[in-house]
Amino acid sequence: MTNAAGGTLRRRPSQRRSLERVERMLDECALLLDEVGYEQLTTKEVARRAEVPIGTFYQFFPDKQGLVRALALRNLDAFLDRMAARVAGADLRDWTDAVDLVIDEFVEMKRTMPGFGVVDFGEILTTPGGPALPESRRMLDHALDNNVIVADRLRSLIVELLGAPRNEGLGRAFIVAVEAADAVLKLAFRAHPEGDPDLIAECKRLVRRYLSEYISEPPVEPGPGTPGEREPAGDAGTDGD
Amino acid sequence: MTNAAGGTLRRRPSQRRSLERVERMLDECALLLDEVGYEQLTTKEVARRAEVPIGTFYQFFPDKQGLVRALALRNLDAFLDRMAARVAGADLRDWTDAVDLVIDEFVEMKRTMPGFGVVDFGEILTTPGGPALPESRRMLDHALDNNVIVADRLRSLIVELLGAPRNEGLGRAFIVAVEAADAVLKLAFRAHPEGDPDLIAECKRLVRRYLSEYISEPPVEPGPGTPGEREPAGDAGTDGD
DNA sequence: TTTCGGATATGAGTGACGCTCATGTTAACG
DNA sequence: CGTTAACATGAGCGTCACTCATATCCGAAA
């Protein structure tokens, strides 16, 4: 988990020079992804910008997808670290604060970290050529894992500060929540370069609302962001009180 | 909307022969997508299987993406039709029944319609090379629109059988719901060839739960599928037991 | 120091791809 | 039957991802 390139590298760089080169290639890959997208990205250009001959590139990365996959893993590590740090460094009123914090962190990374807007751990590697056959299925597992890792870590964080609510479906619930949030935030950034604020707010609402069925209900917010003008009076059904 | 190839075709086929050819190419494209995925799919192979010379292929489709985009639009049309038909042909107790029905229809199409598992209207065209720059942004808008169209149609259906709940954020809410559901169902089919039943159930729960904040609350189900062993009362705190 | 051997570095080259365009074919009209 | 324009065709072009024969390095043995 510490090293960005889990098992995606052909040969693990040992010497300092090699390590720097791999890092530089990933950096340039990220930049280039922002500039031209995945399809237009060429391994030659990445190598050229990183000042690495193309042959050396292929000594470390198995192929173009491997390069992007390695970047996605590095992004995953970065996100997990920053997520944990952010949650640890704040005092939360309840678990919904943690949800907001994590989403904020994700949004901030989408805004500031090069390439993160294009490959926030693992979609490219899976969706773009998204195959449905068993053999090609391998790739999918990988991406699946990435989101599962995030979900699992997030669940740990929240369960920790909640005192472990025993709940069988909780693991799956967090996976679903992360998957859904990811999609909505992707939409938010498609709609607006800095991420549509309304959609980001809706994303938080979606996750809170969904997870609150699995976690003891927090004090429910008044009404939906924009609509709120008239509160569904008979809301007695769901919320705790 | 009637013709699958909205503005994606280079030249609109007029004669019967041409129409059949375009249709055949789209059919073979769908089949091939299931077999090898988007990246491995080659225009030559599509043309060969459709028994159309490659030159003719490029008379109708601007490029490889255009081909898949046209397929996505055809899929969109098919889904909208079947969605409307399914909802119309059932008697619903409340709006949540409509949600379930629509999701069931989507799942069935993923299972049975060739290529639909790989391109359910528009992701490939956007995500795979998912660029972040203004110029390349064009493609994204398209996919955005596709989901928006589904969301809009679904909203119409539900609002109709509900008596129009006035709510400003409703349009956005449906877009968010469709986007989230799409992602979770994608996950369900990554996890299981026929679509993981638990995840499909969770998808329905997610959408119901989220939309219920915008639509007058229906009789809420007892507890979450698996967990439900003890319903959270009013315990808003962190206490587990 | 010199010699040697295996690890590492390199970029011209290879096959395959997306796509074009000069040429061949058809068909409508006088 | 001749003229003209629309349509059909596949060899060919530029470019891509990726390889591999060769060059270069570097530490240890002599």
Describe this structure in words.
Two copies of one chain form a homodimer. With 241 residues, chain A is mainly α. In chain A, 59% of the residues lie in helices and 0% in strands. The first copy, chain A, contains eight helices and no strands. In chain A, helix 5 packs antiparallel against helix 8, helix 6 crosses helix 7 and helix 7 packs antiparallel against helix 8. Chain A starts with 15 loop residues before the first helix and ends in a 30-residue tail after the last helix. The interface between A and B is large, with 80 and 76 residues. Chain A binds a DNA duplex (30 and 30 nucleotides) through helix 3.
Could you give a quick summary of the protein structure above?
Two copies of one chain form a homodimer. By secondary structure, the first copy, chain A, is mostly helical.
Annotation keywords:
homodimer; 241 residues; mainly alpha; 8 helices; disordered N terminus; disordered C terminus; DNA-binding
Secondary-structure topology with pairs:
The structure is a homodimer of 241-residue chains.
Chain A: H1 16-40, H2 43-49, H3 54-60, H4 64-88, H5 95-112, H6 137-160, H7 170-191, H8 197-211
Helix pairs in contact in A: 1-4, 4-5, 4-6, 5-8, 6-7, 7-8
Chain A binds a DNA duplex (30 and 30 nucleotides) through residues 11, 15, 18, 42-44, 53-59, 63-64.
